[in-house]
Specification:
Helix content: 40-55%
Number of helices: 5
CATH superfamily: Rhodanese-like domain
Radius of gyration: 16 Å
CATH architecture: 3-Layer(aba) Sandwich
Oligomer: single chain
Number of domains: 1
CATH class: Alpha Beta
Number of strands: 4
Largest sheet: 4 strands, parallel
CATH topology: Oxidized Rhodanese, domain 1
Order of helices and strands: HHHEHEEHE
Strand order of the largest sheet: 2-1-3-4
Amino acid sequence: MNMNDWIWLIPFGLIAAFWAFKQLTQVSREQAHKLVSEGAKLVDVRSSAEFATGHLPGAINVPVQELASRLSALGSKDQVKLLYCASGTRSAMARSMLKRHGFTRVFNLGAMSRW
């Protein structure tokens, strides 16, 4: 078999790797409720329009595409942040971005439906 016979596996491998990473960075529903009860800031990283249609109680909205320019809206870099979105993809990206900006206690709920 030559390389062309195996090239189609690359996209599947990338998707599997991304899915595994996303799952590993998510907290459970129980962990999420505990974090919020202990004072974690709940951050909805969906668009403003999505937020307006419904969101978790007490959440603030900082869309992922605005995150880098609105870091001050999140408060202290040491305060616990719990991120969520519609599917978990944007919240996983937002978690990585915040970690790169020095936020130390950032958790990913994933999809809002997991609440």
